[in-house]
């Protein structure tokens, strides 16, 4: 099965305009991560993302609208000033969640996954198909709902540094991506992610 990097649809349409003086937050503080015992098979540690562990906390954290995707069986809460658009792609589907008026956005690319031996995507598996794809500082992470994911930094020509969260769930691979200056926002939103 070929792992596709979803062409950065609008990432993208979005090329976020970073406001001057707006600092990039470090991953450890942004994602409130901490090591947990266990072997991830990808980076040697499992990281828990302790953001919005309860639905009420998640809603308080993000203060937004619950997006429910019944086709793929997941939901998340995004800020009220954002909306979701679904785009059919050759190898899957892209959900672009962006400000109604503004430049902030992130995307979720979903494609079929038919390799049951992988329950968590690994940097090694990504490199099998995408030799030049950047996978920096990879960590196996556990989202608030118990879902395992690969959390890492990447870089796209023209777009710059990106935060990546890749999840294998059921028969699909979910590639969630945002520009680096939206790392904090993506962390809060991913803290509300739930498979139904």
Report what the structure shows.
This protein is mostly beta strands and 196 residues long. It has one domain (30-195): Mog1/PsbP, alpha/beta/alpha sandwich (Protein Transport Mog1p, Chain A, 3-Layer(aba) Sandwich). It is 14% helix and 40% strand. The protein contains four helices and twelve strands; from the N terminus they run αββαβββββαββββαβ. It has a nine-stranded mixed β-sheet with strand order 1-2-8-9-10-11-7-6-5. A three-stranded antiparallel β-sheet has the order 3-4-12. β3 (64-69) and β4 form a beta hairpin. The longest helix has 8 residues, at 55-62. It is globular. Residues 6-29 and 33-61 have low confidence and may be disordered.
In short:
By secondary structure, the protein is mainly beta. It is built from 4 helices and 12 strands, in the order αββαβββββαββββαβ.
Cα-atom Rg, whole angstroms?
16 Å
User: What's the CATH architecture name?
Assistant: 3-Layer(aba) Sandwich
Span between termini:
26 Å
Helix fraction, binned, reads 10-25%
Secondary structure elements and pairings:
Blueprint: H1 27-30, E1 33-36, E2 46-49, H2 55-62, E3 64-69, E4 74-79, E5 82-88, E6 93-99, E7 105-112, H3 123-129, E8 136-142, E9 148-156, E10 160-169, E11 172-179, H4 183-190, E12 194-195
Parallel strand pairs: 2-8
Antiparallel strand pairs: 1-2, 3-4, 4-12, 5-6, 6-7, 7-11, 8-9, 9-10, 10-11
Keywords:
mainly beta, globular, Protein Transport Mog1p, Chain A, three-stranded antiparallel β-sheet, single chain, nine-stranded mixed β-sheet, 14% helix
